[in-house]
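Service request form, structural biology core

Requester: graduate student, group of Dr. S.
Request type: structure prediction, single chain
Budget code: on file
Notes: please return the result as structure tokens.

Sequence provided:
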Amino acid sequence: MDKSPQDQIAHNPQDIAGKPSPRIPYWHIWTDDRGISRQTRCHLDHFVFAGVGQAAAQWNDAQPADTATVVFTVQPVGWVGEWHENPAPQWIVPLSGRWWVESMDGTRVEMGPGDLSLGEDQHCRADAAGRHGHRSGVIGSEPAALMTVRLSPTAAHHPCHRR
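Core staff response, request fulfilled:
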């Protein structure tokens, strides 16, 4: 039985028309072994070229199965969330406006539509300055609308484990 060209492509995802599989960058805020929150630039990069249902083949990077709750937030102009942890591991997707996140190690990342963050700073330990988790806030003159996808409560304490 001969394989269709689409079946052959699906089994060779690293070379679709001579192009490597895509990579989607994201910022990962995580807690190290000392309880300090840090941010690391990571990439989703385990894509497979395959159809979904009856649709034509596309690049897919399926994440591990998990329970999830989707929460939409709108942070008003001037909003600042002082030091706190993410309530659970969660993907954060800015929909409109701009937003910043500062981790305990002093890293400040600014994000807007098209950016992606994985908030996993649970179990931080307050430092001598009282910093615990992260702080975040709105940039500019318009509110920041975010979509969060909260996952199960178990966080991994190393960067870039979601690929």
